[in-house]
Amino acid sequence: MNNKVLFLSFICVIIFSNTVSAQDLAKGKKIYETRCLVCHQADGGGVPNMNAPLDGASNVVGNNIARLVRIIRAGYSEKVPLDGMYYNNVMTPNPDLKDADIANVLSYIRTSWSNKASKITVAQVQAVKGKK
Length: 132
Ligand code: HEC
Prior knowledge:
By secondary structure, the chain is mainly alpha-helical. The protein has a single domain, classed as Cytochrome Bc1 Complex, Chain D, domain 2. α1 crosses α3. It starts with a helix and ends in a 6-residue tail after the last helix. The site of heme C (HEC) has 26 residues, from α1, α2 and α3.
């Protein structure tokens, strides 16, 4: 392979990966707006004592990806402290969301507002079996 071909394929890879990730976040945002915003709010700040914040939440930007995937699939009402606070609303499950949808919405909440964590791939979601 000559250098020109190598260079062109390199550019293609960059363009391709950029469009893919931009699209994933746009899809994640749409899912967030239709399914999550009502409780977690547009700014990810949640509602005190009711709905946990996602912006700045240590679990949301943390490394326990399996826990996050299970929360989206099965909902959440463990009533354990989250960053020292309790929230008494019940998060509804999303059994109809595809693995790709879950990857997109988790990528969105991990990279939005002040959150700067890694995006989540479909493979990472697929690796989590079961609802609980
Ligand atoms: C009906 C309101 C409601 C909806 C809709 C909702 N949530 Fe939640 N969510 C909650 C509540 C309440 C908690 C905390 C429950 C508890 O502490 O027992 C929570 C917890 C979480 C957590 C864990 C936070 C932490 O610090 O560990 C994540 C992540 C999360 N929600 C993401 C989402 C996403 C993404 C969506 C949309 C697909 C969504 N939620 C939809 C109410 C909701």
